[in-house]
Amino acid sequence: GIQVEQSPPDLILQEGANSTLRCNFSDSVNNLQWFHQNPWGQLINLFYIPSGTKQNGRLSATTVATERYSLLYISSSQTTDSGVYFCAVAAYSGGGADGLTFGKGTHLIIQP
Amino acid sequence: SQTIHQWPATLVQPVGSPLSLECTVEGTSNPNLYWYRQAAGRGLQLLFYSVGIGQISSEVPQNLSASRPQDRQFILSSKKLLLSDSGFYLCAWSALDWTEAFFGQGTRLTVV
After folding, report:
1. Does A1 touch chain B (CB under 8 A)?
2. Is the four-CA dihedral B45, B51, B100, A22 of positive or negative sign?
3. Domain count, chain A
4. What is d(CA B91, CA B75) in angstroms, rounded to the nearest whole number?
5. pLDDT in tens, chain B (112 residues)
6. Which chain A residues are Cβ-neighbours of B36 within 8 angstroms?
7. At a CB cut-off of 8 Å and minimum separation 6, what does B53 contact?
8. CB contact, 8 Å: B7 with chain A?
9. Which domains does chain B have, with CATH numbers?
10. Nearest residue of B to residue A49 by CA position?
11. Helices (H) then strands (E): counts for chain B
12. What is the least distance, in Å, from the CA of A91 to any CA of chain B?
């Protein structure tokens, strides 16, 4: 199956700093999503981005499918950005409904 | 708009007791449905997925089973819980084109 590696595993920053989270995957994918897991465990959808670049406020993401990686950028960090960020991918072939394969996540702590 | 409901939010069960977790989706028809488990606070593992009523595929052999009695209802069950079944269980749905997946709020299960 597809392997997903996220880096760094842990990141501690001061409020206002910028950060870049990376996701490498081992094979071609049809689906790539970024999630933020809040302290209550809920997975919040950030981006659906199998290729290209998207931006949503202070967050943006870029996926270079041919080189099998994706980047999540967080600018002007706030304490509410703290939590675990997951990258998840899937490769569908002709009718498979397999679920997402998740990386182990990046644990981000934003200090005031 | 589509919403996904999952309950209960937390559950403490003794070893050997049965389990039933329920997930329902509103606002869409014929969704793909998924059960994931998150152990030790990191990484989600796909347990089951379903493309239609009565159609269940299992990704990992385990002490759990899943059923889909109605189009938008997905149930996770066990006849006898083990300590190792403790974890955070999340239900998810995606449209038939297997694009973006959305998650419920999760059930935190502790087996004692």
Report:
1. no
2. positive
3. 1
4. 9
5. 889 999 999 999 999 999 999 999 999 989 999 999 998 767 899 999 999 999 998 887 689 999 999 999 999 999 999 999 999 999 999 987 777 899 999 999 999 9
6. 99
7. B68, B69, B70, B71
8. no
9. 3-8+17-111 (2.60.40.10)
10. B100
11. 0, 11
12. 10
Q: Peptide bond before B8: cis, by omega within 30 degrees of 0? A: yes
**DSSP conformation class of A42:** P
Q: What is the CATH number of the domain that holds A97?
A: 2.60.40.10
Strand partners, A4: A25
Q: Is there a contact between B90 and B36 (Cβ–Cβ < 8 Å)?
A: yes
Domain of residue A14 covers: 4-111
- Smallest Cα–Cα separation from B109: which of B79, B80, B86, B81? B86
Indicate the residue of B32, B44, B108 with minimum beta-carbon distance to A97.
Answer: B32
A13-39 per-position pLDDT tens digit: 999 999 999 999 999 998 999 999 988
From CA B69, how far away is CA B92, in angstroms rounded? 16
Percentage with pLDDT > 70 across chain A: 96
Q: What is the dihedral of CA A106, A91, B87, A8, to 10 degrees?
A: -10
Please provide the size of chain B in residues.
112
SS3 A67: helix
B108 CB contacts (<8 Å, ≥6 apart)? A41, B9, B10, B11, B87, B88, B89
Contact criterion met (CB below 8 Å) for B99 and B9: no
List the structure tokens of A7. Answer: 């880096």
The two structure tokens encoding residue A70: 């994706």
